[in-house]
C-alpha cells in the first residue's frame, strides 16, 4: 500500500476471505466534530467558519500525504469579515453553525457569472514593488515555513529567484511568456517490488537536460536480444530524485499569477497506473493556494479578490462531490452552452489550513481500487478547482464573478486491456471508461491547438466539465508520469508518445500540415549495437524522410516514424513499404528507383551482401555445392548470395509483419472503445496483412524458382565431372 504518498486516500479494505481484489473505496466516516488539532485548527482560523469540520483527521497521515511540505502552520491574517448585510445571499451567515448547503448556491453555474474583465491598466497597489519589498522585509512566507523554500537554491531544473514576491511580480507582469501548453515528464524511482524482481531502470536522463532516453529491449525472431533507444524531448524532464517542491516550481508556479488576469489554467497528470500521478498532484493545489493567497494579500491587496474551493470526482461517467458525502452531481448546459454543475459545493476560503483540510477530506473520499500495478489506484478523475472571483466594483456587496480558475486534475490510472486480466469486470469497465476519457481529452487538446471550430468536448464527461478551462485564454500544464522499470516499457513509451503529441501541439504545429515538425520533437528508435550490421541506416538526426501522410491517430504516425527508421526503409510509409518487396530489396542497396524490377547482377550481390546480411536461417537452408564436396563456380557463389538475400528479405518481411500486427493489436486493445473507429483499425490491419501476404507470396515464388534453377545448375555441374 502506498501509505506514505497516498495518505489522503481512504485505505480501508475488508480482508474477508473470498472478497474480490478490486474494491472501490468511499469514505463516509466523517465525524461531526473535528478532532483536536485537526478541524480545531480549522475552526480557529477559518474566515467564516461556514463549513463543517471536514473529516476525521489523521494529522500524521495528512503530513505524509503533503510531502511537498506546504506551510500549514502559517496562516494569513484573515481579511476583515464584512457585515452580513454586505454579503451575497449565498454567503450570508444565518447563524454560527451554517451548513455548506445553506451557503452554496446549490446550482453552481461556473459560467453564469461573466468572467470579470479587469482593467488592463494597472491599478495602484498592483505590482506594488515597494509593498512587496516591505513585506519581504518583515515576516516572509519563507520564514513562516522554511520547508517550502529550503530546496530552492538546489533546484536542478532551473534557477528561481530567492525572493518569491519579486518572482511573482515578474511572472504576473509577463503573462504572455507563460506557455499555453507545457509538457513536463516526471520519472518515479524504482519501487521495492520492482527491485526485488531485479527489474532494470530503463530511463536515462542527462542532468540539466530536457530530454530522456528509453532503452527498450527487444527480441528478434531468432530470439537474440537487442536494445532500441527512444529519445524524447520535452519542456522539462524531472528525474526520480526531484522533489515535489521542484515539480511545483517547474509546473504550476508560473501559471498561478495568470489566473488573476482572466485565465483558466489546468494542470493534469497523465500516466500509467502506479506511475506517480497522485504522488505528484496531491501537493500541488496546496502550494498553489499558498501562492494565490500571497498574491491576494499582497500584490492584489484590497482589490476585492476572493478564493473559492471545490473538489469533485468523475467516476464511471458520473460526478460526485468529494466535499459533500459524495453527493451525486448533475452537469447541465445552459442556453449559452455553458456548463453548470448542479449541487456542487463551492467554499470561500481564505487560509491555507482550511484548504489543506478540504484537500484531505476530498482525497479520503475519492474512489480508489486495486490494479495490477497499484494497490491503491485512483479509479476516478479528481478535479480540484481554485476559482478567483471578484465583484464588479471590487466590493463584496455584489455577486462575485469568476476572474480566473486553476483546475488540478488527477486522472485515473490508465491500464491497458491486456493488463487487466487479473481484474474483475468492474475494473475493466472502469478501465474502458477511463481510456475513453483520456482519448477524448487528447482529441480536445489537439482540436484546440488546431484552432478547430468544433472542439469535441462531448466526447466524455471529463472534457465536458473542463470545457471552460480549455476555451478562451487558457494555460495547460501536463505532467506525464512514467515508471522506470523494464516491465513498464510499453506503457512508458505510450505515455511519452501521448505527451509528445501534446508537446507537438504546444509548438503550434498543425499536425495535419507538418508532421516532420512534430517528429522533430522525438529523436527516437536508435537501434543499438546488436543491429550494428545495419550501419547504412541513417540516424534520425541525419534526417529520415518522414511521410507526409497523416494518420487520423497520433500513435499511427508514431509507428510510421518508428517503422521508417527501424525497417531500413527511409522513404515510404509503413503501408507503402509493406506493399512492395521489390522496393524494399532495392532500398537496401541504396537504389533510388522503386518502379523497375530488381535485377540480380553480380555487382548487386557484391554491394548488397556486406551491409545487411545476418546469416541464413535454418528454415531456408538448401544443400550447397560444398555439401556435395564440389568446388563452386563464381556464378554458383552469386546464386548462393542471391538465395541468402532472398531468405533474409523473406525473414525480414515475416518479422516486420509480426511486429506490425502485434503493434496494431496492442493499439486495438487500447482503443477498444465504442466510437473509437475500431472498424477503421480493423480494416487498416487487414490491408497491412494482405499487402504483407502478397509480398511474402512473391518471395516464396521467387525462392522456389531460385531453388529450381539451383538444382538445374547442380545437375549441370555434376554432369561436367570433377
Ligand atoms: N516521485 C516519487 N518518489 C517516490 N515515490 C513515488 C514517486 N512517485 C510515485 N511514488 C510512489 O509510487 C506509488 C504509486 O504512486 P501513485 O499512487 O501516485 O501512482 P498513480 O499514478 O496515481 O496510480 P493510479 O493511477 O493507479 O492511481 C506510491 O506508493 C507512491 O508513493
The 3D shape can be described as elongated
Termini distance? 78 Å
CATH homologous superfamily of the largest domain, by name?
Kinesin motor domain
- CATH architecture assignment name of the largest domain: 3-Layer(aba) Sandwich
Mean pLDDT level: 61
CATH uppermost class of the largest domain: Alpha Beta
Helix coverage percent of residues?
25-40%
CATH topology name of the largest domain, in short, is: Kinesin
Task: Tell me the radius of gyration.
Answer: 31 Å
Number of DSSP E strands: 18
How many domains comprise the coordinates? 2
List its salient traits.
alpha+beta, 722 residues, single chain, disordered N terminus, 18 strands, 2 domains, binds adenosine-5'-triphosphate, Kinesin, 37% helix
Can you describe this structure?
By secondary structure, the protein is α+β, with helices and mostly antiparallel strands. 37% of the residues lie in helices and 15% in strands. The chain has 2 domains: 39-189 and 240-484, 3-Layer(aba) Sandwich (Kinesin), CATH 3.40.850; 567-720, no CATH class. The longest helix is centred in the last third of the chain and has 43 residues, at 678-720. It is elongated and about 115 Å long. The structure holds adenosine-5'-triphosphate. Adenosine-5'-triphosphate binds next to helix 10 and strand 14. Residues 2, 4-6, 188-189, 191, 271, 273-279, 371, 374, 376-378, 413, 481 line the site of adenosine-5'-triphosphate.
Amino acid at each position: 500500500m502506498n501509505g506514505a504518498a497516498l495518505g489522503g486516500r481512504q485505505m480501508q479494505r475488508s480482508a474477508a476471505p473470498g472478497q474480490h481484489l478490486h474494491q472501490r473505496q468511499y469514505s463516509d466516516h466523517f465525524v461531526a466534530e473535528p478532532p483536536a488539532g485537526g478541524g480545531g485548527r480549522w475552526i480557529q482560523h477559518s474566515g467564516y467558519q461556514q463549513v463543517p469540520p471536514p473529516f476525521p483527521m489523521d494529522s500524521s497521515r495528512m503530513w505524509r500525504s503533503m510531502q511537498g511540505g506546504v506551510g500549514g502552520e502559517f496562516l494569513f491574517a484573515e481579511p476583515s469579515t464584512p457585515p452580513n448585510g454586505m454579503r451575497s445571499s449565498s454567503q450570508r451567515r444565518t447563524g454560527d453553525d451554517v451548513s455548506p448547503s445553506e451557503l452554496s448556491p446549490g446550482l453552481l453555474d461556473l459560467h453564469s457569472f461573466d468572467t470579470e474583465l479587469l482593467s488592463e491598466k494597472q491599478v495602484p497597489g498592483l505590482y506594488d514593488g515597494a509593498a512587496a519589498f516591505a513585506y519581504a522585509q518583515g515576516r516572509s512566507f519563507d520564514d513562516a515555513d522554511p520547508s517550502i523554500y529550503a530546496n530552492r537554491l538546489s533546484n536542478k531544473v532551473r534557477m528561481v529567484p530567492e525572493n518569491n514576491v519579486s518572482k511573482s511580480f515578474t511572472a504576473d507582469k509577463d503573462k504572455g511568456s507563460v506557455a499555453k501548453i507545457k509538457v513536463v515528464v516526471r520519472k518515479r524511482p524504482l519501487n521495492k517490488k520492482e527491485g526485488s524482481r531485479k527489474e532494470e531502470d530503463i530511463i536515462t536522463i542527462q542532468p540539466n537536460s530536457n530530454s530522456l532516453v528509453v532503452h527498450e529491449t527487444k527480441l528478434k525472431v531468432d530470439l537474440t536480444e537487442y536494445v532500441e533507444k527512444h529519445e524524447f524531448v520535452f519542456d522539462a524532464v524531472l528525474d526520480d530524485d526531484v522533489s515535489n517542491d521542484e515539480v511545483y516550481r517547474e509546473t504550476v508556479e508560473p501559471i498561478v499569477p495568470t489566473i488573476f488576469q482572466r485565465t483558466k489554467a489546468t494542470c493534469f497528470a497523465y500516466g500509467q497506473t502506479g506511475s506517480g500521478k497522485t504522488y505528484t498532484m496531491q501537493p500541488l493545489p496546496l502550494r498553489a493556494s499558498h501562492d494565490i493567497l500571497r498574491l491576494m494579500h499582497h500584490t492584489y491587496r484590497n482589490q476585492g479578490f476572493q478564493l473559492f474551493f471545490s473538489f469533485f470526482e468523475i467516476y464511471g461517467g458520473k460526478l460526485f462531490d468529494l466535499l459533500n458525502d459524495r453527493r451525486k452531481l448533475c452537469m447541465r448546459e445552459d442556453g449559452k452552452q455553458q456548463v453548470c454543475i448542479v449541487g456542487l459545493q463551492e467554499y470561500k476560503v481564505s487560509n491555507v489550513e482550511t484548504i489543506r483540510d478540504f484537500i484531505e477530506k476530498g482525497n479520503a473520499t475519492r474512489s480508489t481500487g486495486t490494479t495490477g500495478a497499484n494497490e491503491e489506484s485512483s479509479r476516478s478523475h479528481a478535479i480540484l478547482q481554485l476559482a478567483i472571483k471578484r465583484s464588479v466594483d471590487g466590493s463584496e456587496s455584489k455577486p462575485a464573478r469568476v476572474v480566473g480558475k486553476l483546475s488540478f486534475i488527477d486522472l485515473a490510472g490508465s491500464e491497458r486491456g491486456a493488463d487487466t486480466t487479473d481484474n474483475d469486470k468492474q475494473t475493466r469497465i472502469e478501465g474502458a471508461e477511463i481510456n475513453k476519457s483520456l482519448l477524448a481529452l487528447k482529441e480536445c487538446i489537439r482540436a484546440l491547438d488546431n484552432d478547430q471550430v468544433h472542439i469535441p468536448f462531448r466526447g466524455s464527461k471529463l472534457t465536458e466539465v473542463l470545457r471552460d478551462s480549455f476555451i478562451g485564454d487558457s494555460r495547460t500544464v501536463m505532467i506525464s508520469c512514467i515508471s522506470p522499470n523494464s516491465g513498464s516499457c510499453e506503457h512508458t513509451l505510450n505515455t511519452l508518445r501521448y505527451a509528445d503529441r501534446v508537446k507537438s501541439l504546444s509548438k503550434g504545429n498543425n499536425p495535419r500540415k507538418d508532421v516532420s515538425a512534430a517528429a522533430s520533437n522525438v529523436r527516437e528508435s536508435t537501434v543499438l549495437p546488436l543491429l550494428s550490421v545495419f550501419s547504412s541506416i541513417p540516424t534520425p538526426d541525419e534526417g529520415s524522410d518522414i511521410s507526409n501522410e497523416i494518420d487520423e491517430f497520433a500513435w499511427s504516425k508514431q509507428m510510421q516514424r518508428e517503422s521508417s527508421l527501424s525497417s531500413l526503409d527511409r522513404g515510404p510509409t509503413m503501408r507503402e513499404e509493406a506493399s512492395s518487396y521489390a522496393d524494399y530489396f532495392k532500398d537496401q542497396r541504396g537504389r533510388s528507383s522503386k518502379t523497375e524490377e530488381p535485377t540480380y547482377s553480380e555487382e548487386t550481390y557484391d554491394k548488397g551482401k556486406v551491409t545487411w546480411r545476418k546469416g541464413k536461417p535454418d528454415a531456408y537452408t538448401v544443400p550447397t555445392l560444398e555439401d556435395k564436396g564440389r568446388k563452386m563456380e563464381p556464378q554458383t557463389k552469386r546464386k548462393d548470395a542471391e538465395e541468402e538475400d532472398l531468405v533474409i528479405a523473406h525473414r525480414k518481411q515475416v518479422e516486420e509483419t509480426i511486429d506490425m500486427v502485434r503493434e496494431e493489436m496492442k493499439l486495438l486493445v487500447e482503443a477498444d472503445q465504442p466510437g473509437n473507429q475500431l472498424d477503421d483499425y480493423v480494416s487498416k490491419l487487414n490491408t497491412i496483412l494482405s499487402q504483407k501476404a502478397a509480398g511474402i507470396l512473391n518471395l516464396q515464388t521467387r525462392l522456389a524458382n531460385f531453388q529450381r534453377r539451383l538444382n538445374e545448375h547442380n545437375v549441370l555441374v555434376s554432369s561436367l565431372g570433377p
